[in-house]
Amino acid sequence: MQRDRGGTAVLILLAIGILLVLILNLALPESSALHLSTYTVTLWGKYLCYALLALAVDLIWGYCGIMSLGHGAFFALGGYAMGMYLMRQIGDRGVYGHSVLPDFMVFLNWKELPWYWYGFDQFWFAMAMVVLVPGTLALVFGWLAFRSRVTGVYLAIITQAMTYALMLAFFRNDMGFGGNNGLTDFKDIFGINLQADSTRVAFFIASALALGLGYVTCRYVVNSKLGRVVVAIRDAEDRTRFLGYKVDRYKLWLFVLSAVLAGIAGALYVPQVGIINPSEFSPLNSIEIVIWVAVGGRGTLYGAIVGAILVNYAKTFFTTALPEVWLFALGALFVLVTLFLPQGVVALFRRKQEPA
Amino acid sequence: MRQPPRVPVRRVDLMQYGAVATPALNLSHGGILYLDKVTVSFDGFKALDGLSFYVDDGELRCVIGPNGAGKTTMMDVITGKTRPDKGTVSFGRTIDLLRLSEPEIAQAGIGRKFQKPTVFEQHTVFENLELAMHTNKSVWPSLLAKLTGEQRDRIDELLLTIGLAAQRHLRAGLLAHGQKQWLEIGMLLMQRPRLLLVDEPVAGMSGLETELTAQLLSSLAGKHTVVVVEHDMEFVRSIARKVTVLHEGRVLAEGSMDKVQNDPNVIEVYLGA
């Protein structure tokens, strides 16, 4: 196995992050100067979810050349599956106090739970859906697209169309997912208050572990022979086909894996931010993910993580300090990185003689 | 910068890269490739016009013809890249190539070298050969695949054959043009094909490289069937036993090099007499 210094650094930093949060947030009293606020912990938990999402995009874009501008959709679907579980956990503590129906359904005068909400009161079922729903959508969508040999810009455009269509669908109240308000007002998970410091820390740790595991999985895949086939497809698709590889199957496999990772990221994201609504499907979100990966360094895996955290940290800073500047800053960042750092930010830390 | 491929130190028995029997491949009539009245048109232009073309098992055949004669289109049809409007194409007597996809045709035992050398530039020379190797090429087995000692040995030996043993860990994108051509031929051999389709193997090669390529291709015939498309007449003369001349999507002449060179139709097409 090649030495993966960037990846090792990421995994070590994640471990340090978990330790720091445990000590600085839970062990130190709030009065201490070194105390880490729960707000900050959750903010970083959110960044880690974005990092996992970026990792998923880098896996298919960086290694297989499939530019998906619709990955936000898989993220959102995973988030909705988690949101539906959390909604069912509210039980009769909603504003209208209905024992089964979530508030928005009572408000819409619905009498019973739609069939697709069945089972979401079970944690295991919801978790299965977190994986299965994005995975199935990717399977069907990818099967149609790759079989017809849709590639490059055309694929990017239809993935945009996919996420846009889903956004419009989820905006509708009749869909039964809370319309434009989405799902929110979550109370607890496993009977434990979602707002409690320890729950927040637990979600941060879960996100860090998911990111670490996701990284190790992706690294295993790209280091395997399958990974070499996938890069071969990226660089010379026809050649790969004439060597006897069924290119569309490889693409589909990778695309589904990537969608599942995105779904898991979404599921971890929702309880931390406390809401999921159709704006997560917005095409702009999906484009932003690609920018994170480009900024960090495409085709490195750890670069995607660095990029996601860097850009989102900057976003938090700008949207608080200078909200009107943010989009310009993001655009400028993308242009500058493309022009001057085509290998991304991580290229700055790489030793010169190492091949790109 | 450019250096000719190293002369193979020892003659490797190429039999071991050859012939893995494809179960359904039926060679009972001695023919390995049959194209019968194949027509391909692009927007009304007939790239192939009722082409009939047969190759015997173990043959080394050269296909020549002016630009636009349909040579590359013929290769595309055989390898599944282009579907003909009319006609039949079969591998042996029984395998209908028109029903198979490109990867299935490759796995059935037909390897193709492109006109422009196409290797995986970001992979090392060794990895290029590993990817080409005849093995299970489905997704899950690839995820778990580990090279066995025997497979490593096969790659090592082939590296010697194509004279790239010293460059094994070099990224293929850094190879000289001629070396890429050789690597691609090596990749073809790793596939253990019964039939090799080689499109312009010596384009851009130096004299020595051309000579070595001629040697290599000649040594392959017999155990493999080789179809070479080439413009370089000297090269064709040096290897060909039988030559097929294509013109406007049809076979214009076929036979030994001397015979086709003296064919009045061929002289007319080539010299415009």
Please give a structural write-up:
The complex is a heterodimer of chains A (356) and B (273). By secondary structure, chain A is an all-alpha fold. Chain A has one domain. Chain A has 13 helices and four strands. In chain A, the strands form two sheets. Chain A has a two-stranded antiparallel sheet with strand order 1-4. Chain A has a two-stranded antiparallel ribbon with strand order 2-3. In chain A, a hairpin with a 2-residue loop joins strand 2 and strand 3. Chain B has a single domain, classed as Rossmann fold (3-Layer(aba) Sandwich), CATH 3.40.50.300. About 7% of the residues of chain B have low confidence. Helix content of chain B is 33%, strand content 23%. The termini of chain B are far apart. With 273 residues, chain B is α/β, with parallel strands linked by helices. Chain B is globular and about 55 Å long. In chain B, strands 6-7-8-3-9-10 form a six-stranded mixed β-sheet, with helices on both faces. A four-stranded antiparallel β-sheet of chain B has the order 2-1-4-5, with helices on one face. Chains A and B meet through helix 8, helix 9 and helix 10 of A and helix 2, helix 3 and helix 4 of B.
